């Protein structure tokens, strides 16, 4: 679950800085919506399958539903519809919250069983879930959130910068976030055998600031989130203003992983072709969400390895300003900023 934290140190500090930001990118009032059967969820699949080898693997949803049917002798779509009907028929907030928690635990088990192998190298592509039974933190979290939404629940994805052991990373992990009818959040993490985790450092959307924020998380009994505190100013972030990451950010983050893991790219021994592939994916990641600091930082690292030093400096400076504005500058971006200013 946390192997990426040490390997990601190579990348820490990638981009920064203020990039053009438009109010048009502000998120809507509710949670970003991408239910499993929706066109919006299909865009995650389309982005992935556009890169699949030929002949192409079976479509992801068709494969997943067949695998679920074979394992559990029931239809996944019917199971989701039945769960939704039970939730809608449960008006009591506490009873409904218990059923919501049970639904998240069910989907946590199912995703781990149907896509059993964890892979940092290939698990961010939906077509590799079909080909190899592989998943990674972002894919599994987006899938669980989409399935929870299909069942009628408020759910999304947040990035992690500090794990339960107190280890910090440069946004090195992702989890699903479930907001219950009891007004409490739960973190659903398919990288762990147990469904609900207590990650004390998250990165999510602050609706009041209209921007992303690094936050510290306090937990109550049984792992429910008691509250969020902004790192930027040390002030509480009200639950109603804390939102999961939008679909533009999630698509950007998938592209970040494609750039990070491109063969011959910026991790490990690099080749000109590999670095060019990394740059293409990271440039697209920034187009999709200019305020994704990890993508901005990563592109600076690629440019530096390509010998494009002035472009690298600008990226590192932009990344540093982004991290700073959003409340936390990890060690890697700090080092990159010092290099850029030298």
From TrEMBL:
Signal sequence extent = 1-26
Q: Is Signal a UniProt keyword of this protein?
A: yes
Note the segments forming the TPR repeats.
293-326
Write out the entry's keywords from A to Z: Signal, TPR repeat
Gene3D superfamilies, alphabetized:
Tetratricopeptide repeat domain (1.25.40.10)
Q: Which InterPro entries match?
A: TPR-like_helical_dom_sf, TPR_rpt
Designated name of the protein: Tetratricopeptide repeat protein
Q: Could you tell me which species this protein originates from?
A: Meiothermus luteus
């Amino acid at each position: 679950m946390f192997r990426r934290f040490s390997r990601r140190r190579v990348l820490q500090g990638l981009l920064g800085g203020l990039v053009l930001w438009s109010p048009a990118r502000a998120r809507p009032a509710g949670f970003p919506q991408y239910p499993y059967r929706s066109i919006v969820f299909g865009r995650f699949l389309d982005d992935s399958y556009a890169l699949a080898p030929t002949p192409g693997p079976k479509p992801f949803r068709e494969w997943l539903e067949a695998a679920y049917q074979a394992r559990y002798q029931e239809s996944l779509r019917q199971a989701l519809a039945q769960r939704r009907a039970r939730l809608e028929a449960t008006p009591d907030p506490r009873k409904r919250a218990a059923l919501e928690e049970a639904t998240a635990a069910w989907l946590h088990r199912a995703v781990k069983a149907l896509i059993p192998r964890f892979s940092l190298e290939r698990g961010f592509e939906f077509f590799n879930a079909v080909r190899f039974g592989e998943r990674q933190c972002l894919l599994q979290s987006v899938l669980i959130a989409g399935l929870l939404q299909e069942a009628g629940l408020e759910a999304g994805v947040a990035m992690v910068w500090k794990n339960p052991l107190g280890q910090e990373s440069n946004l090195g992990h992702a989890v699903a976030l479930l907001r219950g009818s009891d007004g409490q959040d739960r973190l659903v993490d398919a990288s762990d055998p147990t469904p609900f985790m207590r990650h004390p450092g998250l990165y999510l959307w602050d609706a009041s600031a209209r921007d992303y924020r690094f936050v510290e998380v306090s937990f109550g009994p049984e792992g429910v989130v008691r509250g969020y505190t902004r790192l930027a100013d040390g002030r509480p972030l009200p639950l109603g203003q804390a939102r999961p990451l939008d679909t533009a950010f999630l698509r950007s983050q998938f592209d970040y992983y494609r750039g990070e893991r491109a063969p011959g790219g910026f991790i490990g021994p690099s080749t000109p072709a590999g670095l060019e592939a990394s740059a293409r994916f990271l440039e697209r990641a920034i187009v999709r969400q200019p305020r994704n600091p990890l993508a901005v930082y990563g592109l600076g690292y690629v440019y530096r390895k390509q010998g494009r030093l002035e472009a690298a400096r600008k990226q590192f400076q932009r990344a540093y300003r982004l991290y700073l504005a959003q409340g936390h500058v990890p060690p890697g971006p700090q080092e990159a900023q010092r290099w850029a200013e030298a």
